[in-house]
Amino acid sequence: MATGAGWAPPRSVERHGAPRAGGGARSKSVAPGPRRPSPFPARSRPAPDNAGSADSCRVRVAVRLRPKNSEDLAHGADFDNCVELQPESKRLKLKKNNWNCESYKFDEVFSENASQKRVYEVVAKPVVESVLEGYNGTVMAYGQTGTGKTYTVGRLGKDDPSERGIMVRALEHILSSMSFETDCIAISYLQLYLESVQDLLAPEKTNIPIVEDAKTGEVSLPGAAIVEIKDLEHAFQLLQIGEANRYAANTKMNTESSRSHAILIIHLQRSSRIKGENCRSLSNDTLDIFPDDLPLVLKSKLLIVDLAGSERIDKSGSEGHMIEEAKFINLSLSSLGKCINALAENSPHIPIRDSKLTRILRDSFGGTARTSLVVTIGPSSRHYSETSSTIMFGQRAMKVVNTIKLKEEVDYEILYKKMEREVDQLTSEMERQQKVIKSEKTQLDKKLKESEKAFHDLRLTSNMQIENLEKEKCHLESAVKNLMQTLEEEKGRRNLLSEQIIELEKLLNENKQQQQLENISKTKILADTSKEHEKEMGELLKLLEEERSCSSSMKNRMSVLQQQLCDAQSSAQLQESMAREFEKKLTKVTEEFTSQLQSLRKIISELISEKEVIYEELKSTQEKAQQEMRHRQGLEDQILRMKQSASDNCAEESKASCGMVRSGSGLGNAAFVSKSGKLREAVSGQRGTISKIFEEVGLPNVLSLLKSEDQDVQIHAVKVVANLAAEDINQERIVEEGGLDALLSLLETSENTTIHRVTAGAVANLAMNGSNQGVIMNKGGARLLANVASKTDDPQTLRMVAGAIANLCGNEKLHLMLKQDGGIKALLGMFRSGHTDVIAQIARGIANFAKCESRVISQGHRKGRSLLIDDGVLTWMVANSTRFSASTRRHIELAFCHLAQNEDNTCDIIASGGIKELLRISRESPREDTRNLAKKALDSNPAFLREVQ
């Protein structure tokens, strides 16, 4: 829920004049009063008028006549009317007797047949349309109690749209005329009860202050809930909540008499803008303050007031607290009448501060709002003085003139949202850039790491290559040395062979001749030896050439390796330069990382200190929990000790005598009172024991024992709660402390028959309180009770369940939910037990249901056949009406008579043979009021009369 702070205008531009609802000519505002100079220039606009006449801004008053009700028909004949309407001339005649009457003229006169739609279109629609244009408005109903004010103004009509009152129709009109993209609608729903302003949407808010702005004179209610709505369904829910929280009571003049003034405040905010002619009419300074693109809003307020009815104590029959309510109602209405008189007579002093009602309505009479008043009257001459007073109030109200003003305010909210969007865009752009920078930094870090890794790998690879090249160089050098050494050895061998050849040639030449002669035989051997040496020399020469070619290839490979070594050294120098640059970047990033790491360490240290504090708190909490556990264990031990001193039979009898199943509907209590003197003494002693437990242990601790794992402890705790719930003073407190939730949980989860019986009795006692009945139904209490009834045949348990459902039957607002949850079927199904006390509770519940349903149908709040007929209750009553005790028969007869009052039940009653039963009741019933009800049902229904004849 939003508070009213958001509606306070930061700066306003006033427009004088009344809004135009029809096609009438625009006119200046009437009776403009002095006002303080505004810090901003005001722009005037002529006020449109609904009627186009000179009294366009006065309060418009309509009269609505209520049809005769059953009480009027019972106290007078058709001619016994004090009001005669003349709708065509908008007049009415008030007759004191047959020769003395007075005529009054109003803005509109509605007969008893006027529809809700026509009343809205004439009375409220012009005001609503002016509110949509930006002007304040008020629609109010005034009259004697029981004349239809709440029906005219506050009727919801959710099931029948034709029955809707002014509140619902105004909200429907406004919602259909607004654009939720640029406009806003919110409502507050208040009541003035015992001169205290209370919030109907938030009942905990009471005694709300009324604040008046010293500069503008506007009235506000700070602290009242303001709820923004988007559709009619949401509005229905809020109105239903407010209606449920409003104070009402049953009087002789009205079964549902409102005991407070209800005020529905509708706040509207619509977009507007200064353009065109309006801008040209302003000065340059004004244009500097209000540029063309400055957003403006129209803020208006509609008050729909359902006043409590004026009444006389002797006629209404109010007693006790209702007398105090009537005094405050009449006092506030009297103060309102004094203000109307003073305004009508142009008195210099208006007694607005005499009542909170007049302070709230300060703007509606003599203020800046367009106001429509509908006064409701009854036709009966028995209330001539009240009707005359109401008519004179309306006549004086027609003389009150209001000064209508239109206010335009600078919509700082739109400007704020625009700046907020720009800030969001800049923030998102900054965050995007930060993300880009962060991503680039991450990529650079990644590239740096990759480069460092590549540089490290390259350095290792280069070192390995250099080592391999050096090893290979050493190996090659050693190989070259070996080859050179081998070559030198081959050269020495060759030289040696050459020398040997030369020597051999010399020897050969020297000894040639000798050998030729001497060694002819050896010539061949020498030739062969020479050939072998020549062959060996050829092989040595070939080997020398191969060694030479191998040496040249080794030299070439050595030059290539030397070139590769030079290239590797230049590449290593380039990588060293790149590594130095990367080291610089790495140093910078390392410094930033170090600073971030320090900040993170600081945050971690703070978190560690917070963790230590939380650990200390957790430790203290654990100690408290252990103390609570020890205290709870002591309470359980105390309950177990008390269990030994109180027997179950005494507890059962004390429950019966304390009234664990009592009626909350006014139809009489069940006869469960003990007649024995000894039993009364036992009950008194048991009550003393329960009071002692309650005082020593306390209600929260007793309720905590309902969750005990010991079943005996649970049973005795439920008995204590049940006996406490028998006292009216404890019932609401038990629900507030969570006792109802614990009892319903036991009904749902426990399988113990004793727990079911005692728990159902406790729920029955809580159901005696009207405020608790709705809570029980909303939490599924009827469904759980029906489930228990279907699972047990124990008469005492069924008696408690039937008593609880019978108490719920006494609330007409819960009938439909009770039927849907199976409560009626369960109530009728418990007849199977045949126990006298159970059947007495069944009959009481049916009588409660029928009586409340008959009252709702007679008031026009619901139509159709009875909900009891669908579940076979009528057939059961016809078959068993004469079988039981006198008190049970009395409840069945009373229920039958109330069902017969509804004409929609006629066919079912005739088909079930109920005519004979009605005739028997009208003749033989021991109670006179029951016989009269039966006779009235027979006489007023033509179908019954035909069946009787």
Architecture blueprint of SSEs:
Blueprint: E1 12-16, E2 60-65, H1 70-75, E3 83-86, E4 91-97, E5 100-105, E6 108-110, H2 116-132, E7 137-143, H3 149-154, H4 166-177, E8 184-193, E9 196-199, E10 211-212, E11 219-220, E12 227-228, H5 232-245, E13 248-249, E14 257-258, E15 261-273, H6 276-280, H7 284-289, E16 295-306, H8 313-316, H9 321-344, H10 356-360, E17 370-377, H11 384-397, E18 405-410, H12 412-510, H13 512-518, H14 520-645, H15 648-657, H16 677-697, H17 699-704, H18 711-725, H19 728-736, H20 739-749, H21 753-766, H22 770-778, H23 781-791, H24 795-808, H25 815-820, H26 823-829, H27 836-858, H28 867-870, H29 873-880, H30 886-900, H31 906-911, H32 914-924, H33 928-940, H34 942-948
Parallel strand pairs: 2-6, 2-17, 7-16, 7-17
Antiparallel strand pairs: 1-18, 3-4, 4-5, 8-9, 8-12, 8-15, 10-11, 13-14, 15-16, 16-18
Helix pairs in contact: 2-4, 12-13, 12-14, 13-14, 14-18, 15-16, 18-21, 20-21, 21-24, 23-24, 23-26, 24-26, 24-27, 27-30, 30-33, 32-33
